[in-house]
Amino acid sequence: SAMKITACALTICLLTGLPHGMGLFIYFILMLSIIMVAAPGVPGGAIMAALAPLASILGFNDEAQALMIALYIAMDSFGTACNVTGDGAIAIAINKLFKKNKL
């Protein structure tokens, strides 16, 4: 989530002319990392938690924040699908591995 938010934020900064220096984004990434630890595990929870640093650190206005929410929600379902598919693949592998050892 932090990588998706950072990539989208950088894109919006580049498109709208907002400041996007290396030091500013390192500070944003560090703050975002702390916030992501406490982000709720619900769909869209990470972007809702990230709205405060987007506004205070990067200077996003309401329109830029709305665009961030739309971009994140559009991408979030693909990340969830990859996570679920990976969990299922690991479960199948573990099941096959330990099925041989049963009596």
Tell how many strands the DSSP assignment holds.
Answer: 0
Net shape: elongated
Radius of gyration, CA atoms, in whole angstroms: 18 Å
- Helix content estimate: over 70%
User: What does the main sheet amount to?
Assistant: none
How would you sum up this structure, described in words?
This protein is elongated. The relative contact order is 0.14. Helix 1 packs antiparallel against helix 4 (62-99) and helix 2 (22-37) packs antiparallel against helix 3 (45-56). Helix content is 79%, strand content 0%. It starts with a helix and ends with a helix. It is an all-alpha fold and 103 residues long. The protein has helices at 2-16, 22-37, 45-56, 62-99.
Kindly summarize this structure in a few lines.
The protein is an all-alpha fold and 103 residues long. It has four helices and no strands. Helices cover 79% and strands 0% of the residues.
Blueprint of the fold:
Blueprint: H1 2-16, H2 22-37, H3 45-56, H4 62-99
Features:
103 residues, mainly alpha
